[in-house]
Sequence to fold (393 residues):
Amino acid sequence: MSRLKLPPYQRKKKSTGSLYRKSCPPLCSLPFSEMTSVPSNNIPNLPVGFMPLENQVAGHTFQAGEIGILRENDGTILKPAAKPLCGAREIKFYETLADATDPSLITLRDLVPEYRGTQKIFVGDRYVDFMKLVDATDGMLEPCIMDVKIGARTWDPLATEEKRAAEEQKYLSCKKALGLCIPGFQVYHLATGRVKRYSKDYGKKLNEKSVKDALRIFLNADSGLSRALLVQLLSGLWAIQKWARTQKTLRLYSSSVLLIYDARRLRSNLESKRRISAPNGNSTTPPTAECNGSPTPFNWNVTPAPDPIQSYQKIQRSHSAQNNYDEDLKEIRDKYNFMLHRMCSVEKKEWAIVKMIDFAHAFPAEQDSLDTNYLFGIENLVKMFEEFLKECE
Fold:
């Protein structure tokens, strides 16, 4: 029923040329929808072992003749390459990335989902090409997912005038002010365990101020902002920001950043903190480290690293590529990496990640310059999360 095409790293290497050819009201009153399964009358016949991705928060789903993302039992997802030009461009992107020797593309390879080739599947009454990617939520019990589209401009150089005009009007308030927008997200509420989904209709109502409230909803901030969660998400966001501040190879249009965390692990983390903290603020039960699979007592005598938040408050620099912001924050990021390692005292592994996705509108850079459109959006997203982190003081 399906035929698998081996990904580039399993095929004989060959030289690659250019990446592509140029052919190709207040929040409390805003509605949300409870998470539901895809209506059965919209699901076409699928091969055994494949099912619609229930966690999809943006993009085309199985409705009105559209084909959405599938999930396979091996922990991978399959994204349809339904539109010939866009699908071929995104496949080419992943295949070029797998064979890349350019330093910026090698760095980018670690920031995107792992690519496992293409697969042709019989869906409904026809064969459809899919890109096979590792599911970033695999193993999460209560996955909270937010799709943040990056860039004030979301139309690519080949877009028609009609497409440009339509894109300019979408999410106008957020894109103009911040260079980003939120097409959708889902979050498990810690207190109730209920999952809520917020669609593009919700995202279109957001502006420069209310988008921060949407992020707070996603972060379960009504239970208090979690430093552990913010540290993990910022670790991924900083890596993307660092890449965007130096890369001059690509121009990304309508590409997204996927923010993911497991609400079950966040709930457990918060409960653990409450258990080990006495009313006077002193710990009552020393945690154990499980970084290598075998619990060992945590060494309370280790000299603590300086608080990175205090260091951050000292510099208070603007997010300009012309100053020493990156250099000043390097030491702070190193301290957060240390904090991530210390999190192994309660968790076996990180439970929040960030991935770059959606490259159907990725083009090679024609000039030796930064992608200022993408950089503008990712800088503002990082800045908002850093502001949340300062609130944890």
In short: The chain has eleven helices and 16 strands. Residues 372-391 form the longest helix (20 residues).
